[in-house]
Amino acid sequence: MNSIADIVKNNATFPEESPLVRAYLDVVRDTVCGLSLRTQEQSVETDLKHIRPLNIDKRMKGLDWPRFGITMVGFHRLNNIEWTLRFVINNGVPGDFIECGVWRGGSSIFARAILKALNIKDRHVWVADSFQGLPKARTSNDVDDWSKQEYLKVSLDEVQTNFRSFNLLDNQVHFCKGYFVDSLPHCNVSQIAVLRMDGDMYESTMDQLFNLYAKVQIGGVIIVDDYNIPECHRAIHDFRGWHGISEDIQVVSGDHVGHYWIKKKTVEIQMNRYKPLLVSTKSHN
Known about the structure:
This is Macrocin O-methyltransferase. Pfam families: TylF (PF05711). By secondary structure, the protein is α/β, with parallel strands linked by helices. It has a single domain (73-278), classed as 3-Layer(aba) Sandwich (Rossmann fold). Helices cover 33% and strands 15% of the residues. The chain contains ten helices and ten strands. The strands form two sheets. The protein has a seven-stranded mixed β-sheet, with helices on both faces. Strands 2-1-3 form a three-stranded antiparallel β-sheet, with no helix packed on it. α2 packs antiparallel against α5 (106-117), α4 (74-90) runs parallel beside α5 (106-117) and α8 (202-212) packs parallel to α9. The longest helix is centred in the first third of the chain and has 17 residues, at 74-90. The radius of gyration is 18 Å and the shape is globular.
């Protein structure tokens, strides 16, 4: 099996690629992250009332919230989506792409664009989100700050409209609506080749891992968008520690926020570790 490093060693150049495919994917990538239109930055350092000129470096690294772009992920983490999809395709890893926590849908749109550009018809894109923002914390592992972020609340209709604007809303795209704790146990994806997690919170990260990790196929890739957020970081290492997961965690090239690992062995999911997280022990004012 080729490594992701082997595939990406020449940046975004891939073997036997037509110039038309490269041009199409570059346009979609740069459009969804707001680079093409040079959209302004919505400051994340204050109360979101401040609008700033575009900072190219921050947008490339996904360190701002674009005012009109449809993903916060940035250039480098979007490239990582392409690299990981090509990795699983080139190595025959079965399964679909699922993103948990999609905001305006830009990253999932790019994933669908990749499959379309490569004429891949037997893999699907799953779009999982509450489409009403982040939940209140169930336990003391999290705080309620995330649930108060109005900017993170994007409706299913808006996300579907964004897919439609790229002519990418088709029968290879599926939506799992609801907070992860409620929706993911019933998500009909059967095999996962790429699991992209963007849940920010400890509990949301655990909801994703406990419900989906067993569906990730050997050779599949787990992407953690929020690895630098302490609660997410702790959830990742708690889950990996409980299950003896020792695969190396790699940093996304050009980025210091996104991380990923390649699944190399099957583990038995210890649902007894998850049950305490399902019981709400935190009072909300």
